[in-house]
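Hey team,

Filing this mostly as a record. A colleague (T.K.) asked me to run one chain through the structure pipeline before their review meeting, and I want the input and output archived in the tracker in case anyone asks later how it was produced. No errors, nothing strange. Just documentation.

Input sequence:
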Amino acid sequence: MFVRQLQLIEATEAQQLRAASDLMRTSGDKVKWAEAGFIYDDTFKDWEDSLLRRHEAFAGEVKDLYSDKPEVVQGRLVYGRCSVLEVPIGSRTVPNYFTHGAFNDLADKRELGWHPEHKALLDDEDEA
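Output structure:
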């Protein structure tokens, strides 16, 4: 699903490959950190909620500033801003790929989307 989300904004193949790599690395780290007792499920949930708020803020800003641009471009702008964030979990610094991977995990779960009309576009595909 996250790859389809990237295709909706016409992300490059390199961006798609990086997204897949970052998602896999992030997923592995979450498991390792949880097993080691470094991070708890509630901590991840709160952190992901903060990512969703940041995504929503970026999407609103892009819509306000770039409403004259095609929606595909608006989506790439939101994605680009999210892809370079490094958001610590509590006081724990995370690797540079981790936040990007978590954003793609949220896109995979359809909790957020890059294209402004991602819900309608993906729902239409599901019905087809």
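Quick notes for T.K.: Helices lie at 2-8, 13-36, 41-65, 71-83, 98-108, 118-127. The chain has six helices and no strands.
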